[in-house]
Amino acid sequence: MNANLSSLFWEGFTVDSFTHSAPDALLITLRPDPGFAPSCRRCGCSDCAVHDVSVRRVRERDLLHWRVTLQLPVRRLRCFRCGIVTESISWLPERQRYTSSLATWVESLTRLLPVKHVAQLTGLHWHTIKNIDYRRMLRELREPERHTVRRLMLDEFALFKGHRYATVVVDADTQQVLWVGEGRSRVAFRPFFTWLGSEGCAAIESVAMDMNTALDLEVREQCPQAEVVYDLFHVVAKFGREVIDRVRVDQANQLRDNKKARKVIKRSRWLLLRNPENLPEGHEVKLAELLEANQPLNTVYVMKSALKELWYAPDKKVAQRRWNEWYRQSQESGIKALQQFAEKLKGYMSGIIASATHRLNTSVLEGMNNRIKVIKRMAYGYRDNDYFFMKIKAAFPGKAR
């Protein structure tokens, strides 16, 4: 390799020798280019004396099937401005054991593949891949504009098995993730408001969340002027778990002597929980037959549809009227699980009625939560929560206002 070509790849150095250290490994030894004056890494001054020299080995990007390692002398210079300092090498990041071209290659891979797979492909350590990707995201992510945030969406997701959770805060207008923190308590959530600042807290108009009392109380304390809006998806999902599932199991237990009918009801969970428009072809008939044959299941299924209508009321007055009617019907149904759910929901009605004024798209929030689960699953879990949270922010950089 001639001097011009080696300078194109490794500015300031020329190739001294090649060595096949293994069948699939190539060691390239470099020496300083006598026509290139070393410069100070801090101030850029090139009028420096060499203080000492150390030999360093660094990984370069693979060449065909060879793993390439560079061996080069790195000089410490005596700069009259900065003192003793390492020379500036344009293609070698400071204090790293890999070249800039290798880092660029790894960055392109981590956009598409899990860290574990990139580590296997490149032969680099998991933490090295993580650090390269983390620096890329720090460089590319834009700082949220705190003073323009007016509407928030809050959600929580499981970090690991064993009831460990994290809370994510999203700008409802730009869909940018503003903050992610471990835990779902008031104390865990409070650093977000510290980051937002007093002026930012005062500008918040509405906050969408599930029925988490801790987050609710913290929002009301930090942003007393904001209206809390409870998330449609979470309330309906809770209705499915606490009412529909309970009634389905009770009805199945009453049919112990009729194994065929009991089997139909036991296997009807997703038929009852899915929205009618999402049912596979032909399942509408099965659902109609099931509801016609079982009055309690028919009642709670209809009440689920009526519950959703609370979020689509044109104003608060209509929303209140719909709630009053829904609550009355639940108490007259004679279904214990439905009555108990309605009693619990009564304490959260202000946050449901607020949706008539503050239209927050809850499907966006749930879609983002599903994407977070995919990010976590692709990595087979993350060893570093800060890195995981940064991946979430990078996945939702937001859109222009």
From TrEMBL:
Highest taxon, organism lineage: Bacteria
Domain Transposase IS204/IS1001/IS1096/IS1165 DDE: 152-392
Classification lineage: Bacteria, Pseudomonadati, Pseudomonadota, Gammaproteobacteria, Enterobacterales
Residue stretches making up the Transposase IS204/IS1001/IS1096/IS1165 helix-turn-helix domain: 87-136
Protein name: ISL3 family transposase
Database matches in Pfam families: DDE_Tnp_ISL3 (PF01610), HTH_Tnp_ISL3 (PF13542)
Naturally occurring in which organism (per UniProt): Buttiauxella warmboldiae
